Amino acid sequence: MRSPFPAARIRRVLPTGRRAVAASVAVALLAAVVVWAVWPDRPGFRAESAMLTVRSGPAGDEPVDLDTTLYLPRDASADRKVPAVLLAHGFGGTKNSVRTDAEDLADRGYAVLTWTARGFGRSGGQIHLDHPDFEVRDAQRLLDWLADRPEIRTDAAGDPRVGVVGGSYGGALALLLAAQDQRVDAIVPLITWNDLSRAFLPESTGAAPTEGVFKSGWAGIFFGGGGNTGSGPAGISGSTAEASEGAPASAGPPSPAPGTGPGTAPGAPTNGGAADPSCGRFAADVCATYLRIAATGRADQAAVDLLRRSSPAGALDRIKAPTLLVQGAADTLFPLGEADANARGIAAGGTPVRVAWFTGGHDGGEGPRTDSDRVKFLTAQWLDHYVAGSGGAPGNTFTFSRIAGFDAMDRGLVATGYRTADYPGLNGESRRDVAVAGPTQRVANPPGRNPAAISSVPFAGSLSSLLGGVAGDIPGQHARFESEPVAEAVDIVGSPTVQIRAASASGEAVLFAKLYDVNPEGAATLPSGLIAPIRLTGLPSSIDAAQPVTVTLPAIVHRVEAGHRLRLVVATSDQAYSTPIEPTVYTVALGDAPVSLPTVSGEPIPTEAALWRWVLVGLLAAIVVGLVVLVAVLRLRHRRQDTSVHPEYADTPLAVRQLRKEYADGFVAVSEVDFEVHPGQVVGLLGPNGAGKTTTLRVLMGLTQPTAGEIYVFGHRLVPGSPVLSRIGALVEGPGFLPHLSGLENLKAYWRATGRPAADAHFEQALEIAGLGSSVHRRVRKYSHGMKQRLAIAQAMLGLPELLVLDEPTDGLDPPQIAEMRRVLQRYATGGRAVLVSSHLLAEVEQTCTHAVVVNKGRIVASGPVEDIVGESPSVLFEVTDPAAARTVLDGLGGVRVLDDSDGNLVVDTNGTARSEVVAELVRAGIGVDRVVPRRRLEDAFLALVGENSRGSGDR
Amino acid sequence: MAGSTVEPTRSAAGVAPSGAAAGYRPSKTLPFVAEFRRQASRRRTQLALGFMVLLPLIILIAFQFESGDDDNGRGEFGSLVSFATSGGLNFTLFTIFVSASFLLVVVVALFCGDTVASEASWGSLRYLLAVPVPRARLLAVKLLVALTYSALALVLLAGTALVIGTLRYGWSPLRSTVAAQLEPGEGLLRLLMVLGYLAVVLLVVAGLAFLLSVITDAALGAVGGAVLLWILSSILDQITALGAIRSFLPTHYSTAWLGLLSTPVQTDDLVRGAVSAICYATLFWGLAFWRFTRKDITS
């Protein structure tokens, strides 16, 4: 039913009605989702930048310009006052390095004041390292300024409701400010120090910082980053800035351009060109102290005092603001011990303190997403309760996390969070001893600190230290002591301790103790790249006389899997530290005590992943329930299925009643078709191509839904999939076979699909009808059209159905086969069965069928027994020599009518008058009669009703 | 047809109340085994399954030409390549690793996308429906058989790789740099979990291909369309600018099975991936059934 007119085809292609609506709704929904997802959020805050001049210094009279930005929630006003947060940046950063965090907090309803600390960026002044008289006093002046703002909530006149948040340099400022100014309501110091002298001059046997080993790697980076005009590694300082935010560092590339680095900003050195090139923007005393320590690798008491002045350690008892301490486990600069000391100091004064560890830090950056999310959540919870006054009191639980492995999706790290009811400190809840063994070993200190072992590389990111990729010990410079494989996994949370003995000819030794996790293949991992520097003095020259010393290693969170070994390495050098430059040989042996590992049994923190698990379970349950309900509904509907038999048609193989099929595009293929097929009949459905024959048969086979009308098969109403279809054998629209199977296999595959007993198939008879001979074992792919057609007829006859429906069965058959087919069909219908054959060939119907139904343009134009239709017609065609005369003669005959007159041929309705008589009359009148041809009704009907041309109904 | 005779006997002796012919029951039509055999007889089924057996052999032979220069520095999971010859389990893992992103997608799309569309293009679909095989049953059986063949392909690939890998490289622990090595028993379990997750992820392809198979009469269109859409989704997933939208892409979690290699097992993304895959598959299959049970078969 293809239309040659493109318009109709286009109409069919174009969506119509419901489909168009559904499609546009789907497109609109999809577009809405995409737009919603990518639409930039309208900021809920406004930002005001200003250069404030504050007076600070020991006497409070030294003006300094501070570059500030105040982020105000959009709805903040004098009538709707908001609490404030002072957000401090890290060393080497500016107010811009904490912008994201400021915006997050502003979105949560806080007025956030960020500023560039003195000595950095566009702010004036020099770097005094969080000096109480300078940086801390600057911050106090900012509190004054906040209190004057009409939008800021105040506790009393001049006392703003304010929390202080900051990382690293900013975190120490938060602690020192809270100690110095009681107006601060809560603080959240992140990855910061307790005692700067201990952080830069650690000594792990408990000696004072004057005996400490200088952490020259980190110190150099900071001094360079914060100081030297134009020569500082601005990129690294930029990265430090990121490391100091509330959401700490990322290990990625440094973000600020070199031009924005400290010391190079335009107009930065406010004291003009007088800057000392070796000090940059550092205050003279700080600079001198650094130079002194860096030159010798040792700190004198004055240097320690200066660093202590910048440390919260001495001021903790004055902190009354509730404190949330967040510290990173991947941090070789300020390890977990710093937060531990802060926590103990503040808690001693009765101030609420909460501690959280995450897997980032100055080395590890923000850590995995779960960790940075947790830190953000804890910060917001702390501020909401203690500053904004909303939300319940945060619990006292201690949370920490451990790297669980690599994320398979984005190749980042995955951390598992844990929590315990109380903060266990660095000694853990319990301890586990693991014995290590090894002989006494002699190790050399390299002259001039080179080559040196590598334990961590600042800013190399956490991957390197975790993988042990960069950790390397130099042969001859380290002693190894190894344990047996541990029987069960150990979760180390805290500071392990080890005992060693050492002897040195010089009486002194600088050593580094490290604890490796060695897997069964021998690959060693140094957790977080953390090592314990030791400076021993008064050593004997013989190891036998040496006293054991206990070394407290930096706190780690690490799981030693079962089967792994622990390896204690005592090395003489490390790139991150300043070691003696003279070549020496030490003797190292184990002490008496085993390696003692602190353990904490934390309960895993449920993450949203747990929620997803429930979603999965729920989804599966919903699908199962949905399927069960669906099946139940279908069963019910099936049971209620109309099995009634229309009594009128109970014995009629087929009754088609007012069938109409209108396609979605409005094309009417069948407008009204009405006929019956009775047992024993071979009914021909005759019509030109496109008359609606095939559509009728398609509806009859349940392939297409009729628009209106009914079909009854043996009285059963026929709908798509009706069981009564099993009593119909069909060939509709040509054969359809699996081309890779042989004819016989195809028939067998088809019959298997019916699920009926093989005995009912009557293959033998079907094959006989197909008459394919041995070709039945060849693949259908190789068949000619006629062979396929015969096989299809055979398939239709499988099971000897009571109604056989054949669409153009003789298509592709040769004349003898057509003749045989006629006989077969006639014989088939004899046993009470019926056959419906569609054809566009008049002769075929005439010769094969007992009854005929003529359709055209979707309507029935004639129907009845073939004899009635095909039988002798009262009309006769006369070919005469003189048509005009003949007409006169015929008109004279009573009852005889001339129907048509063309080309000397007259079609005459004799109306009962014998043809011989009419001929005699004509001859009597002297008219020569060349031919007398009896006409037949079917032809009349076909031509009269169908028309001479056989245009299809699709062309209407 | 010469000389053929038809016995004029009525076969409608025991007609059911529903009017069905004797022996006909809707729930017995197109039995699973019949459809399984229909598909088994097809050359494409045999070739696809055969290739699943052949591929591990080809990989094994390729590994014999080891040139010695290790250039597998592709992140932490690049070790799958360098460890491939360390044992049967690792060899299997490698084979799965190289097949998961494309080959298995094509194979699953082939089995699920071809099944209805090819019947439609041969014209045999209308004869099945005229049997009559109820439409929902036809789809259900075809889907089950297609899924069975997909699973069979997966099992054949992994099974062959495991057998020949173990024969050639031995029964060694499963190794990777992302985690401690796993004992063979534990490693086998992980391998089975990987296969299970892959099977779940591939349900999306199965769903998409099946839906297209119902919509179109061209088998190539259904198979190719499903693979193309899968590739499109993979490409979009590479564009990080899309942000959170990426999580909704059907391919977003397709590599989450690598998390099964670490210790402890990372199941978070697996769960999310499973939820995503099951949602998509259910949606696609639901649409396929909805469409097929209503459409006019015009092929």
From TrEMBL, chain A:
Keyword Transport: yes
Keywords: ATP-binding, Hydrolase, Membrane, Nucleotide-binding, Transmembrane, Transmembrane helix, Transport
One GO MF term attached to the UniProt entry: dipeptidyl-peptidase activity
Region described as Disordered: spans on this chain: 232-274
Bias (Low complexity): 236-250, 263-274
Coiled-coil stretches: none
All residue ranges annotated as the ABC transporter domain in the record: 654-882
Keyword Nucleotidyltransferase recorded: no
TM ranges: 20-39, 611-634
Family: Belongs to the ABC transporter superfamily.
UniProt name for this protein: ABC transporter ATP-binding protein
UniProtKB/TrEMBL annotation, chain B:
Biased composition (Low complexity): 11-22
UniProt GO MF annotations: ABC-type transporter activity
Domain of life: Bacteria
Pfam families: ABC2_membrane_2
Recorded GO CC terms: plasma membrane
UniProt keyword Transmembrane helix present: yes
Keyword Transmembrane helix part of the UniProt annotation: yes
Regions crossing the membrane: 47-65, 91-117, 138-171, 191-215, 227-249, 269-290
Stretch list, region Disordered: 1-22
Record keywords, A-Z: Membrane, Transmembrane, Transmembrane helix
UniProt-recorded name of the protein: ABC transporter permease
